[in-house]
Design a protein that fits this description.
- The complex is a heterodimer of chains A (about 500) and B (about 475).
- By secondary structure, chain A is α+β, with helices and mostly antiparallel strands.
- Chain A folds into three domains: about 290 residues, no CATH class; about 110 residues, no CATH class; about 60 residues, Arc Repressor Mutant, subunit A (Orthogonal Bundle), CATH 1.10.10.410.
- Helix content of chain A is about 40%, strand content about 20%.
- The two termini of chain A are about 60 Å apart.
- Chain B has about 475 residues and is an alpha/beta fold.
- Among the domains of chain B are: about 240 residues, Alpha-Beta Complex (Amidase signature (AS) enzymes), CATH 3.90.1300; about 80 residues, no CATH class.
- Helix content of chain B is about 35%, strand content about 15%.
- Chain B contains 15 helices and eleven strands.
- Chain B has an eleven-stranded mixed sheet, sandwiched between helices.
- In chain B, helix 9 packs across helix 11.
- The longest helix of chain B has 24 residues.
- The chains are: A alpha+beta (about 500), B alpha/beta (about 475).
Chain lengths: ~500, ~475
């Protein structure tokens, strides 16, 4: 793919994100939400659209939509409405999807997206509630619809509550698109709105992409890139589509408004349907549901109960704690990790706390399949361990050993040091003894050192660490080696 | 005492209480007439189940409030394990897995479902001739229609096959057949009765209601089915219980006669009969004035945009995949499957309305048809509000004609649609109305429609009851009982 000359062309990108809401039951019936259960084991007359059934709106889905809207700076509509979106397909039991259309529950918000290079703003056009379709399972023909011998419908997913969040076309690069989506994901997770697993389909993103000559304020013809199911595919898909459009425009052609599918295996873009083929969904207000008119007091209660959002947390940590954006991003979810880190950082230097939590602690625990907050290492333990490094009781390698012991036994780090005799040798006499012995045992190296071959200091420090079982303070040993060789 | 099948529901309950009859006797009497169904009222029944239920109720130490009274149910209502087709081939052989809320409430109160009644397919029609299964005959004249769409329920009650029945009314489907069969039919306020389990025709208009031979039975039946249902978001809390009417006069009641529904298009015999009723109303102390509903003339046009629009979506679920008529002989692709299942499963009137509604919702036409019809609906509602600022109740004929001959209007949809000219405006306004028999015209019953503001059911029953006593109409069709 040829690189796009961004001094000549400006991409304009907006995202439409569907997330599955973390409700206990479906949008319009009492069936439990599930993933991976036996097909059609979570169905009832309502979600199977038996004759005579009626939808009843899930209040928890409304709550999650409102909470999301508030977190994204949206207005919560005092009156919103569901519509029927009509089309025939076996995955849609009623042959219409109940969805909000021109009266969505959340309108007109915006978010600041934090990146290592600073912040940018993205407007939120709207967020609306709708229900998911069922899942088609194609048998034979490689599991694809074309060529399948038969197709089954699993209605477990049918009627799952979805929130569709639509951004303004404020995004300019695929990296920004990725950053926006990542921040949105951690926000929604923090709010408990969705688990946002792209590989399970609980978060799906479509991108509206157009390009225009740099400096122009008019929008070019856009295309819609459907269902990119990972961050990497989103960024690569958007890049591929930008390149495709620029190539068309540079060749003097015109972009066609159409819906596209990105094939990550081939890094290619295929047309799904053009504007002319677009369905007429014959939307009309859903007469089986009353309008959604949330109490103002309920909305204010939800607003007051909003947690500190990841973006605010990260901004605060970078500013007040001096940790890096990358550390802040990693440590800001899930909320148990936030609490854990903040506890450690409240006791010792925050950068060291970030390093240890994000680095060695998680690395050691990963092998055991544990998370920090569920391990035997309390924040107090970790802070104590960092303190033992600071006061030179422990070297970093020793501290890692002590940590392993704390993980295994749950004992306090100082107790482990004491019990195992792992503390650094603070007795100057003992260190002098070791250094003098090593100089005597390695006369060639000692001679070269005395002649000024400075890098042999490292050799003796290494030998001293070995001889002391890692308990020598390397800095102190180095100083002693120099002193005894007359270098200092 | 009358024969068991001739008893009203109230009389049944009295006889049950006094020990003069049993649920089993009542069920046997009803079953005998259901099985000798000369009128074609019933599409299905389950005699064993009804008998079993009657035995259970007779064995109960304390009889439930409706314990042992048989009831006929329109086939548009879902009844667990009992065939439910809504009069359509596309649901042939379908046995639901759940029971409609209103039927469930009646069964819990001890009523015994005696059978499922014939109807115009998916409640679309005014003569029951659009049933995919059979013709239903008017008990007053076997060569005439019983009205529709709830013609089977109306005929069953008129022919003493059941003391009462449930129907559904979208544009007049309870009131018009009640009028044509000489019985009492009531369409409650929209939202009074749960629609859960009522196979939808037009969701914003559909409402379940009672058929009975007396106003008090009608009130008693409604009293057991009104009220909020968790399964229907549009159902309403019903603060004031429905009580049995006892009014004997109409002093202080202001009645409006709808000007637009007394002129052209109303058969002279019908007009004469309702005018006799107006005289009785005056005699009983009410005042009568003429009232205008200026936009009601647009009722039919409005209705035939909105109801088909909603039905085009409501009936889209019938695709033969999950239930109902399944076709194994379709060779082509998915589209071919849909076309074959729906092409073979739906009758001509249903197809006509689906196409009409699809067109009314199509991009480019939506504003001109659907949106405009909604605006007119609002105007019609306001007409009624303005009228109810002046009078307490509105009266008019229920149907412009008496029962018409079988086959007369089947090939002329518009003349069929005109059957509901008096009932449709009330449906669009969502308000309650009752039709009571007010006399005969050339030997055929004439219905009087009384409409009131939303939630005025108790008042409506009072007026209807007082008038029923004054008119003393005999609901026995000649030669039927």
């Amino acid at each position: 793919m040829s690189a796009v000359d961004l001094s000549r062309w400006e991409p304009v990108i907006g995202l439409e994100i569907h997330v599955q809401l973390l409700t206990r039951t479906k949008m319009f019936c009492g069936c439990a939400l599930s993933f991976g259960d036996a097909p059609n084991s979570h169905t009832c007359p309502v979600c199977l659209a038996h004759p005579g059934v009626l939808p009843v709106l899930n209040r928890e889905a409304v709550r999650l939509a409102i909470v999301t809207g508030l977190a994204l700076g949206c207005e919560i509509a005092p009156h919103s409405q569901f519509h029927r979106k009509n089309y025939f397909y076996p995955d849609l039991s009623k042959a219409y999807q109940i969805s909000q259309y021109d009266e969505p529950i959340c309108v007109g918000g915006h978010v600041s997206v934090l990146t290592p290079d600073g912040e940018f703003e993205v407007g939120i056009t709207r967020a609306h509630l709708e229900e998911d379709a069922a899942k088609l399972v194609h048998v034979g023909g490689g599991g694809r619809r074309a060529g399948a011998e038969s197709s089954g419908v699993d209605f477990n997913r049918g009627g799952t509550p979805l929130l569709e969040i639509v951004s303004e076309p404020d995004i300019r690069t695929s990296a920004q698109a990725g950053a926006f989506l990542r921040q949105l994901r951690s926000t929604l997770r923090r709010l408990g709105v969705s688990d946002c697993n792209m590989d399970e389909g609980s978060m799906r993103a479509d991108a509206n992409v157009s390009v225009r000559p740099a400096g122009s304020t008019e929008l070019g013809t856009k295309t819609e890139l459907k269902n990119m199911n990972s961050f990497r595919f989103l960024e690569r898909g958007v890049d591929a589509e930008i390149a495709r459009q620029v190539a068309i425009l540079e060749a003097g052609g015109a972009v066609t408004q159409e819906t596209l599918h990105y094939d990550p295996d081939l890094n290619e873009i295929h047309s799904l349907r053009s504007k002319e083929e677009a369905h007429d969904y014959r939307y009309f207000p859903e007469p089986d549901l009353v309008p959604v008119v949330p109490d103002r007091s309920w909305i204010e209660e939800l607003r007051a109960g909003l947690p500190e959002l990841p973006v605010d947390l990260r901004r605060r940590w970078v500013r007040d704690l001096g940790i890096s954006f990358e550390d802040a991003e990693v440590l800001s979810e899930p909320r148990e990790l936030v609490a854990y880190f903040e506890d450690v950082a409240g006791r010792v230097d925050a950068k060291a706390a970030a390093n240890w939590v994000r680095g060695e602690l998680r690395a050691q625990l990963r092998e055991l399949g544990q998370e920090p907050w569920e391990s035997r290492v309390t924040p107090a333990h970790l802070a104590e361990l960092i303190g033992l490094i600071d006061d030179r009781t422990l070297s970093v390698p020793l501290a890692k050993e002590v940590l392993a012991e704390v993980i295994a036994s749950g004992a306090a780090p100082a107790a482990v040091v004491e019990e195992k005799g792992l503390g650094q040798i603070s007795d100057e006499g003992a260190l002098v003894e070791i250094v003098e012995r090593l100089l005597a045992e390695n006369p060639d190296q000692a001679a070269q050192l005395r002649e000024g071959k400075d890098k042999l200091v490292g050799f003796f420090v290494g030998q001293a660490m070995k001889a002391s079982g890692g308990r020598a303070d390397p800095a102190r040993v180095g100083a002693l080696v120099r002193e005894k060789s007359g270098l200092s | 005492m009358s024969a068991p099948h001739e008893l009203t529901a109230e009389q049944c309950l009295a006889a049950l209480r006094s020990g003069d009859t049993t649920a089993t006797d009542l069920v046997e009497a009803a079953l005998a007439r259901v099985e000798d169904d000369r009128w074609g009222s019933f599409l299905a029944h389950d005699a064993d189940r009804a008998r079993e239920r009657a035995r259970e109720i007779d064995a109960m130490p304390e009889r439930p409030p409706l314990g042992g009274v048989p009831i006929a149910i329109k086939d548009a209502l879902s009844t667990r394990d009992l065939p439910t087709t809504s009069g359509s081939k596309i649901l042939e052989g379908f046995r639901p897995v759940y029971t409609a809320t209103c039927v469930d409430r009646l069964e819990r109160a001890g009523a015994i479902v005696i059978g499922k009644t014939n109807m115009d397919e998916f409640a679309m029609g005014s003569s029951t001739e659009n049933s995919a299964y059979q013709v239903t005959r008017n008990p007053w004249d076997a060569e005439r229609v019983p009205g529709g769409s709830s013609g089977g329920s109306a005929a069953a009650v008129a022919a003493f096959q059941a003391p009462w029945a449930l129907g559904s009314d979208t544009g007049g489907s309870i009131r018009q057949p009640a009028a044509l069969c000489g019985i009492v039919g009531m369409k409650p306020t929209y939202g009074a009765v749960s629609r859960y389990g009522l196979i939808a025709f037009a969701s914003s208009l559909d409402q379940v209601g009672p058929f009975a031979r007396t106003v008090r039975d009608s009130a008693l039946l409604l009293s057991h089915i009104v009220g909020r249902d968790e399964m229907d978001s549009t159902s309403l809390d019903w603060a004031e219980p429905i009580r049995l009417p006892e009014a004997t006069d109409l002093r202080g009641v202001r009645v409006g006669v709808v000007e637009e529904l007394m002129g052209e298009g109303i058969e002279p015999g019908v007009r004469a009969a309702v005018e006799v009723a107006f005289d009785r109303v005056r005699d009983m102390g009410a005042t009568i004035e003429r009232v205008s509903l200026p936009t009601s003339g647009y009722g039919i046009a409005t209705y035939y945009l909105l109801a088909p629009a909603e039905c085009s979506a409501n009936l889209a679920r019938f695709d033969g995949i999950r239930y109902g008529a399944h076709l194994d002989d379709v060779a082509g692709d998915l589209l071919e499957h849909y076309e074959q299942v729906r092409g073979r499963g739906f009758g001509p009137e249903v197809k006509r309305r689906i196409m009409l509604g699809t067109f009314a919702l199509a991009s480019g036409y939506y504003d001109a048809y659907y949106v405009r019809a909604q605006k007119v609906r609002t105007l019609i509602r306001r007409d009624f509000e303005a009228a109810f600022a002046k009078v307490d109740y509105l009266m008019s004929p229920t149907s412009p004609t008496t029962a018409f001959p079988l086959g007369e209007r089947v090939s002329d949809p518009y003349s069929m649609y005109l059957s509901d000219v008096c009932t449709i405006p009330v449906s669009l306004a969502g308000i309650p109305a009752i039709s009571i028999p007010c006399g005969l015209s050339e030997g055929l019953p004439v219905g009087l429609q009384i409409a009131g503001p939303a939630f005025s059911e108790n008042g409506l029953f009072d007026v209807a009851y007082a008038l029923e006593q004054a008119l003393a109409f005999d609901p026995s069709p000649p030669g039927v009982a």
